[in-house]
Amino acid sequence: MTGAGRVDGEDWINREVTDSSFQDARLRRRFRTLLERLWSGVGQTIPFACQDWANTKGAYRFLPNERVSEQDILGGHFQASAERFRATEGPILVLQDTTSRSGLVGKTELYKQRRYPDLRLTVIHALEAAAPAGRPPIEWKLITDLPVKSRADAIEKLDWYAMRWKIETCHKILKSGCKAEESKLRTADRLANLISVFCILSWRIFWLTMLNRCAAHAPAQLAVTQREVELLDRVVKDTPRMAQAPPLLRSLIKLAQLGGYLARASDPPPGNTVVWRGMRRLIDIQLGYELARDDCG
C-alpha cells in the first residue's frame, strides 16, 4: 500500500495515537503499527493480524515491555476523547474507573460503626405504559442520591440509566469481537496491555455503529475517508431508498452491507458485528485497490 493511501485511510488512528506519551519514540511507532494491524484483523490472532514474523515478534515484544503501561497505550485515546467532549453540547456521562483503587492500608477496626451519616435518597419508580401483548411491562426502581425535583429530573435519570446497555455492548465487542479472552498471553501484564489496545478498537467499532443511529446527517468524512466512500459506492450499489439518504448514513449502511447487513426497509439499524465485518472487508478491498493502482502506474 502506498504511503498516501496509508495515511488517508488511517486518520482516526493518528488522532488516537498523536498525544500518547511513551518513554521512547520507537515504542510509539510500534504501538501505532500494532494498532493498525489489529484493526485490520479485528477478532483474529496476533500472528494473523500481523501477517509476518517481524511484526508478530514486534507485537510480542511490545506487550510485555516494562516501559509500556496501560496509561501509555490509552493516554492518546483519552486526550482525543477529551477533544470530543469539548465539541459536544450537553452533559457528558463518564464511567468512573475503580479497578485500580487500593484499599486502605493500616489497622482494621473491629468494632461496628454505630451511626452512619445521613444520606438523602430518591426512589424513581418507572413502569412501561404500553407493553406488547404476551410479556409483562418493564419495571424499574432506581435509587439515587442525585437531586430529583421534578418529573423532568426523574426522566433524565432514567435516560442516564438506559445508557448502561451501551457499556454492556462495548464489553461485548471487547470480549466477542476482539476475542480478548482467547489471546493466551500467559501473564496479566501482557493481557492488560493487549486489552488496552482492544479498548480503542472496541470504541471505534461501537462509535461507528452509534454514529449511524444518532448522527446520520453528519458529514460522511467523520467516519470514513473520501477514498473509502468511493470504494463503497463502487462495490455496493445504491437502492432507490438509500440513494436519497444522507451521505454518512449511506456510507455506513454500505459498510454494514459488506458485513452481511441486508438493508431491507423493515430491518433495524445495523449492529456492531456487521459493522466490524464490513470494515474488515473494506480494508482488504482498499488494499487490493492500492495494489492494482500501483501495478497500473
TrEMBL record:
GO MF terms held by the record: hydrolase activity
Enzyme Commission code(s) on record: 3.1.-.-
One Pfam family it belongs to: Tnp_DNA_bind
Domain Transposase Tn5-like N-terminal per the UniProt entry, residue ranges: 10-68
Enzyme class: hydrolase
InterPro entries in the cross-refs: RNaseH-like_sf, TN5-like_N_sf, Tn5p-like, Transposase_Tn5-like_C, Transposase_Tn5-like_N
Keywords: Hydrolase
PANTHER family assigned to the protein according to its UniProt record, in alphabetical order: TRANSPOSASE, TRANSPOSASE TN5 DIMERISATION DOMAIN-CONTAINING PROTEIN
Name recorded for this polypeptide: Transposase for transposon Tn5
Species for this entry: Caballeronia hypogeia
